[in-house]
Amino acid sequence: MANISGKDRFSPGLFDLTQDIAGGLPLQVIGQWVDSQQDQVTARLLLEPHKVTGYSVSSDTAGLTRLTEELGLLEILAIINRPKEIVYRIGAAIGGQALGVWAADNTQMFYPSSVGAATLLSALLTAQDEINRDCRVKIGLGAHYGEFYSLNGGLYGDSADAIDELTEDGTEGGEIVITESLMSRLPPDHDFTLIRRDDESPLLGAVYSVVDGPRLAEMSDAPAAPTRYPIPYSERFYAALVAYEDRLNDIAFGQLLAEEHLQDKVVALIERESLAAETHELALCNNLSLSALLKDTGMRLLAEANGMEVKVAGSLGIYLFDQASAAVAFAQAFRSALAQEGVACRIGIDAGPVLVFELASGGHDIAGMPVNLASKMAQDKGRMGKLYLSAAVKERVEAGSFTELRYTVSGVEIAAYEG
């Protein structure tokens, strides 16, 4: 597809949205890009003020998909809360900065170059020790050293995406993996035990598992740091969630929380295609403009769809509806609107209990199995240009032209309907 040029391709006023409505999209930068010649020189000039060098560290909870078959949403949120607190507390103690809002089971932190590589690895080992000892779930950790772009609270760039993907798809519970660039910053006489893995990333180079090494307390006593990671919850719900961690067998308390906070909704998750380019700067600017198109398309169509936008982040848009028929009609209109702009997308729709958060900075975020299942149908198994309904949604709409598919993702069998 061709690049998106000119603000006239967007709704009037899109680039004047306030931050609470724009969310994480750097609309000022995107507006300058779509009105420019869209060449490498312009891309570098726009992105240079936002360049940072340091470590990007991501985490992902192991075995969560299978766990959702056994536990309810609030139990899952309570169980994954403590690992996030540990990751943030230990990371912040050595100078790490939390990125984004940690609504799901994964986390992301940035550490400046002033943090020593040995200190970082000791901190990650210390965090894994505490999580393995005190938590019901385990996490995988991935870390990479390089140059990134910090825009509106998010970390952008090919290598930032690559370490996220490696952590999510290539780590097991309790594991720490680091890349070649991080390993090379360790002192020659370091005491860490590293094993080079067989896999190698085109963007990240060689990958190593950190098997053992000095813990943080053995190097220096870490100063006290807060446990309050960037939570998406209200203060009231967070306090209830922390209390629920120690009362998971209290059925009455769990039911009370569910009745007060959960909503039965239909979730539409839309992933648009990504553009490749000759350089990562061009690709980043082009894909940011596609994210703005995603935002703009949703805002226009929601005016008549009786739904709400949860968020637009990167290549994803997430939307909520009360009725399955409204969600399907919205998704079909969205797919058609993007296709007219030469942009393909894939969409997953599921229904069930979700928790919707109103963020302190404005906007929303969401947690719940319908989001996960919609993602697995569309992102993990879906084809561009296609729409996927879960069994729960198919029961609520007329879907005679949809084709049934069955497959297993993360050990869970899924029935989806493609149309």
How does this structure look, described?
The chain is α+β, with helices and mostly antiparallel strands. The chain has helices spanning 19-22, 27-34, 40-47, 64-67, 73-93, 117-134, 158-170, 180-183, 216-219, 235-245, 251-261, 280-305, 324-340, 369-380, 391-394; strands spanning 51-61, 97-98, 107-112, 139-151, 154-156, 176-179, 193-201, 205-212, 263-272, 307-313, 316-321, 345-358, 364-367, 387-390, 403-409, 412-418. Strands 1, 2, 3, 4, 5, 6, 7 and 8 form an eight-stranded mixed β-sheet that branches. Strands 9, 10, 11, 12, 13, 14, 15 and 16 form an eight-stranded mixed β-sheet that branches. Helix 5 (73-93) crosses helix 10. The chain starts with 18 loop residues before the first helix and ends with a strand.
Summary keywords:
single chain, 419 residues, Alpha-Beta Plaits, 39% helix, alpha+beta, 8-stranded mixed sheet, 15 helices, globular
Show the helix and strand layout.
Elements: H1 19-22, H2 27-34, H3 40-47, E1 51-61, H4 64-67, H5 73-93, E2 97-98, E3 107-112, H6 117-134, E4 139-151, E5 154-156, H7 158-170, E6 176-179, H8 180-183, E7 193-201, E8 205-212, H9 216-219, H10 235-245, H11 251-261, E9 263-272, H12 280-305, E10 307-313, E11 316-321, H13 324-340, E12 345-358, E13 364-367, H14 369-380, E14 387-390, H15 391-394, E15 403-409, E16 412-418
Helix pairs in contact: 2-12, 5-6, 5-10, 12-13
